[in-house]
Amino acid sequence: ISDQKPLGCWSLKHGQILTCPVVCNFETHEYIAVHDDKVLRIWKNEDINLDKAFKATLSADVYRIHSLPDGGPVVLFRGGGVRTLDVLLEAPQQEIENVISDEVIRWSGAFMEGQQPVLIFTTEKDGDFFVYVQKLKLSSLHKYKLEQQESFKPLCFTAHITNQTVTLLCLYSNDSVYQVLIPLQQDTEEEEEEEILCKSLVLNFSVPGTVLKGTSLVVLDKDHVAVLGSLAVPGKEPRECLSIWNTKFQTLQTSKELPLGTSGQLWCYEEKFFLIHGKVLTVIMYKCETSSLAAAVGKLKDSQNPDVSSFVNWNTLEDEELVVSFQSQESVALKAESKMNLRSRRSTVAKVQPETLSVGQLLLNLRDASTYVLETELRQLMSKAPTPDLQATIGCVVTALTDRCKRNPKYYPQNFLLEIVETRNLSYSLCPDLMAVALEKKDMHLLQICLERFPDIPEEIIYACLKTFLSISEAHLQNIDVDLDSVICYIDVEFDNKEVKTEIVENGFSAEMDQDMCDTKIPKETQSRSDGESCPVGLQKAALLNAVLHSAYTETFLLPHLKNLPAQQAILFLRYLYYLYVKCSEKVNTTLPGTHSPTINQIMDWMCLLLDAHFTVMVMLPEAKELLSNLHKFVRAQVRFYSELNKIEGSLRELQRLNHLRESQTYSIEVLEII
Predict the structure, then answer these.
(1) Confidence (pLDDT) at 88
(2) Number of domains the chain is built from
(3) pTM score, two decimals?
(4) pLDDT tier at 385 (50, 70, 90 boundaries)?
(5) Of 448, 467, 646, 660, which one has the greatest count of Cβ atoms within 10 A?
(6) Considering the domain boundaries, does residue 598 fall inside one?
């Protein structure tokens, strides 16, 4: 999440649908999914193809799978039957009882009470709501009926267990939260008659002049809940917000508007909120304070300016809004100032520094300043920024510079931007427009540095950089300052910029030895150009391509973009990758010299990616036939060489063992017979 990079992606076949959320088995570190209601899939992170993952077809439709850290996964069926995953896998086609009749499950949750897993779910039938409490180890099930609320219905539920008592919180359509207490009964027999549960009012979301329409409710601790919903103000458009309430004193602790919109869902795990804000998954840290009347009243007084609360770290949201809304002058000033307000209050320093409060206003004042004044003020701003706010401040500075570049095409502070990227620990998410502006200006040096330093570059931008590097002419690159540290140690160049061909002796490969292995006859005059002995690109372009090889990516998301790469550029890139592959094979440790040089794994991964994206095209192109033939021949020779090494692996290990046993001061000659 910190790098905003996808780490894995698995796809179902066309026509298959995931019918309940995927969970992780904490004990086995496996993922568990259900598609098409009855088909269970289990796989691990290293598995690539979901079709080859473990599959079990069940006898009944699954409603939800719950994974408990100490209790294992629990499967709840739509008919109300409950099984642990281990019991279910012993006989996937076992009959599942139908506990509920004509009722529809609306919510479910799993909890641990000591060593006892407890499953709670609510159902609805003809406007009536029921609560089921299931103890898995004791196989006891208790059914309750919720007290009816005239003209109002529950929208969502959440629960927690304390001292053998289930506290069920229900968010009703009258903008109120009600509490239901259910004791965990010790007997194992089911009740003959369902007990009616009485509820008590816990919260009413009424702030003077506003009404909060909640859509999602989560429990933070015994005295606090978080509500995601929309804030309705008479005469204005509803605004989505996240708020935290004290249920003990019925007060608002803190709230934050979400201008980019949400999906209406809120998750809470290990003192972190997870919600969809705009198009991204946002993680917000919080810390529950000890509930007291003084603290609650204090928070209520500050509710008009909720950002001053130390209850929640709103930095993530504000950084996102600052990036998205920077074009709006007023919103930038408001958010930047409120951000500094929040952070200065959270600081251990009691006094608020006046300069930290004016970041947003300073950026607005500098919008029309001269280049010299702008850069001077921004340098001072970065130098004065306190450590906790340094990254956010630098991100604002870069955003201000790229914003001016967009408004004024003649303005481009190349040296200033290079200085910031080289000396500051930035990321793509802090300044998402920087690389787009660099691509537009064709600033190869800045793109190279960003590719080497940013850990979270989107695959679309990586592809755009690759395409730009391959399309630019060698003559144009001669006049561009590019960092050559990654290539200068293994590409020898004469004064006329032509590479000096050197004799290559690859590990386990020689042209004479393997000539009979390739059926394709290649003319000698063309063979020297494609067999990996000469670099197909110049120094500058090689250095830029190495920066692309260093970028972190996810294959599933990069492959669609690579398929759009023009065929001639794809062949050129593959020639360079083949050249690097041969160069790596010259070394015993398969490592290229120099700094930021690509590794053998990076080279091979990109070769596989490129071949996957363009194999059909390359097979059809005559100019690619020779390259593919040489690549095939070289790889086959490498495989044969390593297979020969595997044959003597046992003898080499025995030799290593004898070396450890031999006394260091004795001289001896030993003969090892390798069979």
Answers:
(1) 93
(2) 1
(3) 0.57
(4) low
(5) 448
(6) no
